[in-house]
Amino acid sequence: MSSLTLDVSGRGRGSSGALGHRFGDSARAWVDRAGAEGRAAYERGLARSRTAEGLFPSREDDLREAQETVRALQARNRARWWERCLSGVYADYAAAAVETLTPDQDPGGRVSGWLESGSRTLLIAGENSRGKTWSAFAVGNQAAAVAPLPMWVVAWNSADLDAALRPSSPNCDKVMEHASECDLLILDDLGAEKVTEWTLEQLYRIVDARVRNRRRLVVTTNLPYDERGFSGSTAPAGPVTPNLVGRYGHRITERLIHEATMVRVTGPSWRRPVPF
Ligand SMILES: Nc1ncnc2c1ncn2[C@@H]1O[C@H](COP(=O)(O)OP(=O)(O)OP(=O)(O)O)[C@@H](O)[C@H]1O
Ligand SMILES: [Mg+2]
After folding, report:
1. Residue-wise DSSP of 95-123
2. Among 13, 54, 252, 276, which one is least packed by beta carbons within 10 Å?
3. Positive or negative: CA dihedral 270, 128, 227, 258
């Protein structure tokens, strides 16, 4: 019995042709998982193979038809996921595209070329309003347009993610599952959220799961960093600004910078007052 590598939930193992979880169960079981449309495709294939033209049921063709249907459903689900992420506070970033990045935002093509690189994490740092979120969403839009099967992309503002993960929030388990398992997670504005032992533990669980499974992660942050994430900056006569490791500790930081591409976005601020 063939085993298909499909999953209409939107889960998957990246965009590089991998089609998702490999189900070892029977064809009937995985077709059941495909929902009504997948089941209908399967039944259609079976019925056709039982007609006079075929003396033997062509099971491989049946499976292929069901597979194509499920893949189309999966692509649609992923597109819907990304549309949801692009609503609300991130609606303006629907237009972000790697082609719009300035040289300051895409030094050496490291942002626009990241998806095709072997790097697992893209860490985008820089001061306010330099286009960090824009750059991250440019990559998100790129990933959500991968053909024939878009990547399953999920974007969260870090503070909002913490709120959504609280046990009192509806679907908090699903939020954790999706943040850990989607093909590409965008974690926006890491460092702006309030850090507690509990939030550190949630971040660790997500980052660790993603590193272990070599899943893609894009992080934007205002925190100062160097290639090892260790540098702190001292504001004049002020307290030391904690950097990644100062704020999240070695356990999380080491995982964040593992196989990471680090980009520091420079250039002028994109937010300006209206000229009078
Ligand atoms: N290359 C670009 N083309 C068009 N608009 C851009 C570009 N880069 C940034 N912007 C716009 O500039 C504004 C600031 O960009 P963005 O929100 O990405 O900055 P940021 O570095 O994430 O800021 P913050 O640190 O406050 O989160 C946004 O309105 C964004 O749409
Ligand atoms: Mg931002």
Report:
1. G--GGG--TTTSGGGTTTTTTTSS-SEEE
2. 276
3. negative
Tell me the two tokens of residue 95: 């237009």
* 271 ligand 1 Cβ < 6 A: yes
Structural domain boundaries in the chain? 1-76, 86-265
Enter the DSSP assignment of 273: P
Q: Is it the case that residue 10 has pLDDT exceeding 60?
A: no
**3-state DSSP assignment of residue 262:** strand
Band of residue 2 on the pLDDT scale cut at 50, 70, 90: very low
Distance 22 CA to ligand 2 centre (A): 37
Pocket perturbation via mutation, ligand 1, pick of 102, 105, 123, 134 by most ligand atoms within 8 A of CB: 134
Pocket flag, ligand 1, residue 266 (CB < 6 Å) = no
CATH among 3.10.129.10, 3.50.50.60, 3.40.50.300, 1.10.10.410 for 86-265: 3.40.50.300
What residue has token string 């499976």? 63
The kind and range of the H/E element at 207 are: helix 197-212
168 Cβ closer than 6 Å to some ligand 1 atom: no
Tell me what pLDDT residue 31 has.
59
Q: Is 131 in the pocket of ligand 1 (CB under 6 A)?
A: yes
Q: Which band of pLDDT confidence, cut at 50, 70 and 90, is reported for residue 50?
A: low
- Please report which helix (H) or strand (E) contains residue 126, including its range: strand 121-126
> What letter does residue 21 receive in the DSSP assignment?
P
Ligand 1 midpoint to CA 153 (Å): 20
> Closest-lying ligand to the alpha carbon of 94?
1
Q: Is the pLDDT confidence value at 57 over 70?
A: no
Q: Quick one: 187 exposed, middle or buried, by C-beta within 10 A (0-12, 13-18, 19+)? A: buried
